[in-house]
Amino acid sequence: MSEQNNPSQDPFKRTMKARHLVMLSLGGVIGTGLFFNTGYIISTTGAAGTLLAYLIGAFVVWLVMVCLGELSVAMPETGAFHVYAARYLSPATGYTVAWLYWLTWTVALGSSLTAAGFCMQYWFPQVPVWIWCLVFCIAIYLLNVISTRFFAEGEFWFSLIKVITIIAFIILGAGAMFGFIPLKDGTAAPGLSNLTAHGWLPNGVLPILMTMVAVNFAFSGTELIGIAAGETQNPQKVLPLAIRTTVARLIIFFIGTVLVLAALIPMDQAGIVKSPFVLVFEKIGIPWAADIINFVILTAILSAANSGLYASGRMLWSLANENTLPRAFARVNKRGVPLFAITMSMIGGLLALFSSVIAPDTVFVALSAISGFAVVAVWLSICASHFMFRRHHLQQGKSLNALAYRAPLYPLTPILGFLLCLMACIGLAFDPTQRIALWCGIPFVLLCYGAYHMTHKNKKFPEAEEANDVA
Fold this sequence. Notes:
Blueprint: H1 18-29, H2 32-74, H3 81-88, H4 91-123, H5 129-146, H6 148-177, H7 206-219, H8 224-227, H9 235-264, H10 276-284, H11 289-321, H12 339-358, H13 363-395, H14 412-428, H15 436-455, H16 464-467
């Protein structure tokens, strides 16, 4: 096996602990989607339909994460799933997955910087948005380039603010639901009456399919655990713990939050004009509700930008490490940071930021559509890679006991995860507002495959059986 593909030769420093991994993953997931889009989902599918869609979304996340868990424990590498896709599906697939995921986080980085600037304008309307974008750009860049441990600590505290807010929201909301905390307008506690006030599924089943697509996007970011596998202390023990903890907390946070929102906000009052969190805080009579939520959303945005720069930089490093990009991207400084890869990703984020200002209706919309499509495509590749990895493992005559962590119910787990992710992609075609993701995403995938075959005609990737020796 070639040296650059051997985890034991990984130049990164293993400084991340379980708490860093869990908060990194939660930080990537808990964002403006939960704080804003949940109101829109309730208004279109009803309360019960929203709960059902989030439960299905949580199940899909669990399927994908246990597949990724088996892969990343057997081969804890920085770059993770694109390396697995290259080994167990095809080199061109791995190349395409890496570029899709890089673009996902680079676009998120550009849009996050813009959104953070708008958040700050709420308090400082006289300061131009571009100044705040520049300030946050420098801060996020420094967090990433000083050291991996410094980045992980920054992400830990960003995410902790969001987690504390959601826990407080669930406790206060539940108190208001059942009358322990009086509502500001003096009305009686609603209990669970709003959940079925308009019927179980007031608009039928089809809106739930559309909501499933949005929910899958809302849960995206959990796979960051796989990206960080190569920089984690004792990955055989830490990765399974982080995966179990993350999925359990996501289910509690998302389902608990949606239940409180659906119970306190009638379907005909929900929407996206105002954050549903603000609506609930105002109903309870929490002072400075808008300021609190604006601060939390700001930390959510900065957390996403922080995670995004980390993920996109590691993707470029991993592509270079597998000899599909110039070796300059694979250089790591003495602190274990791929400085050049992070700098190029930061420049990519700034280009995305400029496109959001200069051409918001053309270039940026297309990039954002590919970004959304890319997340589900990456999940598809994780499930398919896991299916093929286990087959190779058994075909080599190796015992299942040799795997430190095994996904349960194989082969049902990867097959079901793959099919549900595929349904989400197909569902995009039925939603006019999201259809552009397919029109932009599919040509981008074909372009990546074409580019790989044109630029890598004579290059070989390590055989899957060879790579499997690390298991």
